[in-house]
Amino acid sequence: MIDPDLHLAKTLVIEPNPMLRSVTAGQLRSGGVGEVVTCGKMQRARELLERDAFDIVICNLETGTPGELSAHDLLNELRREQLLPFSTVFLMVTAQVTYAQALEAAETALDGFLVRPFTSAALIDRVLEARRRKRELAGVMTALESGKLEVAVQRALERFQERQPFWFFCGRVAAEVLLRLQRPQDALLMFERLHEARATSWARVGMARCEWAAGRLGKAQKVIDALLLDEPQCADALDLQGRMRLERSDFAGALESYRAASLATQGCLLRAQHAGALAFYLGHREEAGQFLKRARTMGAGTRLFDALSLFLLALVHHDAEELESLDGCVKELASFASRFPQSPRLARIAGAASALWLLRTDKAADAAAVVQRLAQAVEGDGFDLEAAQVVVSLWVRVPQTGADDHAAAGFAKTVALRFCSSRTITDFFVIVSLNRPPFSEAFRQGLADINATVEQAVQASSGGAPAQAIATLLAQSGQHRNSRLVEIATMLTKRYTPELGSATSVALAQQAAELVRRFSSGATHIAGLQRANRSPGALVLKA
């Protein structure tokens, strides 16, 4: 097999054994590979892969100690976070391989296994075969990366239906893209066909995701429950179960799911952060500290470690009156912010942490001033749901003067009308505020006001005045920056287009689109728990 570009390939070898690391690097160089970089630790490998682009990665499957980042954890997180392009060949080396592992290598994001001992020729052959696979699927993946999703689906389905090379993988790609195109029923049929062809847990998780996307929450829950009966430690199923429980405001149940997912994959940085964040908000400070400290140890200095996790850890140390540990978190966050001065988010989080330190060093007035300064940004488009949760969690800990009671009530009302658009978010804000007034009352009232506005608009539209109702929704959405109001306005515009007329419908739709554009910047997730562009069990595609 000829590969004229092999000499241009940049390769990373991840191998804890120095002798095997040297041997593998030598085999690659003798086989014609151009540049070879080696490292012995997974955390170092993660840093290298985040910073540099590699064409080939050879990684030892076996890890040193329990709880350490594993090869599968590394691959999954890099794919999930869009840090590893599809074009990169990722091969794992192991002392033995099971039939299930071989199937996974052939049909998923992993490009293959190598079983030791292997010759230089075997290694190079496997590398060349994996690179051939990349070329075979280039048509599908190029369409994805250029945003031509319908073309990508068509090409993937053709390979699947004609049983061309890598047909099963293409079936999975087609299912994922159909779901992205908001065609959950078509995606469900695809996942069902894949599961019939070869039973896999990810296909069952995919079916549950489709049911959920179609609004059939009960069916989605049944699929996940059945899967977890068969595979109690299926982390992707646990992730999705946790997400669905959050949607129902079952925070205790969600923590149970996230905890189980993290314990099943102890080297997974993201799952440790999810479990730690929710444990903290639910008041399980000791458990939160354990998860967040583990995440910090595994990932500090990498893009997968979120500064918010360090802020939550600072809150843990503050509440436990652990000044030395709090000081370490505050200094680390200040260092993050200084390295990225263009990031308002990091500046906000570092500032909030500094207020905790001021409070613990008997500078309550200075701490209160920091809270007031951070809260003043609440009217800006860049002040997102996460920012609100950070400031609220800080405000309820920092004593304010009596003169600031009015400011607290005003801030709480503004946050409520802007973000309390669902029961889940509202309940979560109440938890973040430690159920203290005036915050808790304002959040509940905000949700009630938003629901009343939506109900009045729907009734007015059905009563013959859709244009006025939609205009009111858009005006209030613009005033309060509430995303739910603009979503309802968009839905009503589509439903009542015949009554509105094309010119009016277009004008209202354009107004709504501009509001959506404004609201789409920044985080819109529950802090630390529902980060964007991530779907449990999904095949991550660069597009």
Structure characterization notes:
The protein has helices at residues 18-30, 42-51, 71-80, 99-107, 120-136, 138-145, 149-161, 167-180, 184-197, 201-213, 217-230, 235-247, 251-264, 269-281, 285-299, 307-319, 323-339, 344-360, 364-375, 385-395, 405-419, 423-432, 439-462, 466-480, 483-495, 497-500, 502-519, and strands at 10-14, 35-39, 56-60, 89-94, 112-115. By secondary structure, the protein is mainly α. Among the domains are: 6-136, 3-Layer(aba) Sandwich (Rossmann fold), CATH 3.40.50.2300; 452-519. A 5-stranded parallel β-sheet has the order 2-1-3-4-5, with helices on both faces. The chain is globular and about 75 Å long. The chain starts with 9 loop residues before the first strand and ends in a 24-residue tail after the last helix. 45% of the residues are buried. Mean pLDDT is 87; it is low at 102-108.
Key traits:
globular; Rossmann fold; mainly alpha; 27 helices; 5-stranded parallel β-sheet; 543 residues
- Let me know the average pLDDT: 87
CATH class group of the domain at 6-136: Alpha Beta
Distance between the termini: 30 Å
CATH-derived topology of the domain at 6-136: Rossmann fold
Task: Estimate percent helicity.
Answer: 55-70%
Would you identify the CATH architecture of the domain at 6-136?
3-Layer(aba) Sandwich
